[in-house]
Each structure stands twice: as structure tokens, then as C-alpha cells.
Amino acid sequence: MIRIGVIGYGYWGPNLVRNFAETPGLAVAGVADLDPKKLEIVQKRFPGVKTTSRFQDLLENKDIDAIAIATPVNSHFELGMAALKAGKHVWLEKPMTETAEQARKLINEAEKRKLVLIVDHTFIYTGAVRKMADLVKSGELGRIHYYDSTRINLGLFQRDANVIADLAVHDFSILDYLLGEQPVAVSAVGTNHFPHTPENLAYITLFYDSGMIAHINVSWLAPVKLRQILIGGSKKMIIYDDLEPSEKIKIYDKGVNFTDDPQKIYEMRVGYRTGDMWAPQLDSSEALRVEGEHFVDCIENGKTPLTSGSLGLRVVELIEAATRSMNEHGRSVEINGSTMYQGRRVA
Asked: What's the alpha-carbon Rg for the chain, to the nearest Å?
């Protein structure tokens, strides 16, 4: 049994504690939070879990094997490094850190101590995203032409992270998982409508050496909540609506065929293909439960997590590049980080 302590019982912490408590091989040993009222809630829901206002109590407890950190991103590096130096495996919420340099230091520390470092990019553990990955990797969609995402809602406004770090981070991790290819450049525009707060709306474009292009629309100022992704392939296309209660993924056998055959010079060069639409059955397991079981497996068997520190680093590098582009009014920023794809210059 792996005993885990959770630092932070705010927005995401309750989901972690609930899933950890129900995950085979995991036991919640303690929860730390600065708010006494939140600790009272923990005690009522989980009477056997110790609570404390000092995160150091969890680090100093020799019976605790792992630490999950669900605090604002500006504390991730300090808490993550302290947990690793205390000999604990670490579960970090997304985004991994504020800067890529901080992420690299955490990765190096975890490797030096032979500890598991997992970053909670939860979408990768959903049945929908895993099914899309299967379709992409099997070649059923053909060559991927584009990825178009709309991730908008009213709030929640963050104080220490802009809308790219809060919402586009999901698409960055999904793209990394689906494609196995890293973008070579990014262009982003965005704005801040309220003084002294981070950007609340952004449009991001990622360019790939293969010719694939990704466009991401994120906003905290929309009147409705939308979570939709379109993936266009040369053979088939996908619409993924995360808010759909049952048929989250719909696959369309639609596309366009071009011909330059001289024998067909008098015919249309463009042919439109329209076929069936179907919604595949998806694994309905809660993503955090799947991720928790994966975390246990990685600790017990020395495996590298699917959402390892390296993936977390690539996502942070993308956030930095997109934010830099946004601050420079959309200037294309090449991505040549140490773990990124060393692509050719984008024209």
C-alpha cells in the first residue's frame, strides 16, 4: 500500500483525495491546507485522514511515500523540490511549473533520486482522448491535416496564470499525446480586459513540420462553456465534445479527394466523399482513477509515467513560447527547447 499526502484542498484537491481514497494500492495518509475550514471538510468526509496546516508535516512523515501537490502554480517548484528532497514520489498538478528551467530542475532531482514524477494532465487518461489516440496511431484517420479546439467559459479567473496556462495547457498535452510530434513554431494573440490581471482571452496557432496545423481558442469571457475539438484527417474526421454526456466522440467518414489524372482533365479535380458517422464506445472510467492506478504501477514497477516530467516540461515550454508570442502581438516564435522537436525554420 502506497501512502500519499495531499497538499492543497482547494479547487482540485477534493477530487484527488476522493479518487486516491478509492484507488487500489493507494491510501490517503494526510492533507495539508492553510484554510482550517477546508481541513474540517476533510475530517468530516474522511475521518481517518490526518490534517495539518503545515505541509512540512507531510514531508517529515516517514510513513508517507508520495506527495500530491494541488496548489497554485507559483508554489509548484518549491513544494515539488522539497517533496523530492524528502524522498517522496511526486504528483504535480498542471501546469508543472511557472518556467521551463524550474521543470528541468525537478526532472533532474527526480532522476537523481530514482523517484516517480507525474504531472496531472488528466485529459490524457480519459477514454475519449485514448480512443482518439488509437484512431490516429492506427492510421484510420489518414494523414492529420488540422486540429481545431474551442475551450471557453465564463471564469474561473486566475491570479497567477494567464488563460493559456489555465486552458490551452490541456490542448498542448493532448496534441503531444496524439501526434508524437512537437510543433516547430507558435503564434498567439490575446488580451487582458481588466487591469493588473493575466490575459483572459487568446488565440493560438501551432505549426508542425509535417504540415499539420493546430488552432486553439481559449477564453474566460464566454457566456457559455464549450469544450470541443475537431481533428481533420485525409480519410476521416473527428468531433470531440467533452460536455456531451454519452457520445463524446463522433467519427465522420468524410473528406476531399484531388486528382491530376490527365485522363480526367474534363472532370472536376475535387471530389467530396460523404460516408457514415458513428460514435464509438468509450471507456467510462474516471480519468483520475485511471491515472491513480497508473501512478501506483509506476512506483511499484519502476515505470515512466505516461504524463512524465518530460511531457510536463514540453507543455511549459509551449506555454512560455505562446505567451512570448502573445506579448509580441502574434510574432511567430520558434520552438527549439532542449526536449522539443528540432524542426526546420517555418517560413
From this structure: 22
